[in-house]
Design goal:
By secondary structure, the protein is α/β, with parallel strands linked by helices. The chain is about 40% helix and about 20% strand. It is built from 6 helices and 6 strands; from the N terminus they run βαβαβαβαββαα. It has helices at about 15-30, 45-50, 65-80, 100-110, 130-140, 145, and strands at about 5-10, 30-35, 50-55, 85-95, 115, 120-125. Strands 1, 2, 3, 4, 5 and 6 form a 6-stranded parallel β-sheet that branches. The N and C termini lie far apart (about 40 Å).
């Protein structure tokens, strides 16, 4: 089973509830889970995991400052070492759209990580349906076979 790192930021508790649901789903499927607030996570955590899940609220159309701080702190250490590592995003918003998740994806894509599922976004407090979607995401992340990189197609001559 996979080792999952869940890094999140949450002031209201909404994104934290989603992070816990992702962790519950992954643990129920047998994964090893490290659940950390972004301020406590570091490069060693990211390098040690098989898959990364990042949770952030949408603040002013961007990820939370604490999630950005996490990426700023680990960037120099991990940038050449996480290519193809699977990742997913999730988070909550008051208004607006999915810009916070997009901003996380931009950073993950810059280090050539590989998104393995669409992000999950709740409006304010996540409903039970959203939490169940998070649990299902966690279950998927626990199965290494569901995270395998797609086969490289040989060029036709």
């Amino acid at each position: 089973m996979a080792k999952l790192l869940i890094v999140y930021s949450s002031l209201s508790g909404n994104t934290a509830a989603m992070a816990k649901a992702v962790a519950e789903g992954a643990q129920s499927a047998g994964a090893s889970v490290v659940l950390k607030p972004a301020v406590e996570a570091d490069a060693a955590d990211l390098l040690a995991c098989d898959v990364l899940a990042v949770g952030t609220p949408n603040y002013f159309g961007y990820m939370s400052g604490l999630v950005k701080d996490f990426f700023d702190r680990v960037w120099g250490t991990v940038r050449d070492k996480v290519a193809s590592k699977p990742y997913v995003t999730f988070g909550s918003k008051g208004g607006g759209g999915a810009q916070a998740l997009d901003s996380v994806e931009n950073i993950c894509n810059a280090v050539k990580m590989r998104r393995v599922a669409d992000g999950i976004l709740a409006t304010r407090q996540p409903t039970e349906a959203v939490l169940q979607e998070c649990r299902e995401m966690g279950k998927k992340l626990a199965r290494p076979e569901s995270l395998a990189a797609p086969p490289v197609k040989e060029p036709r001559l």
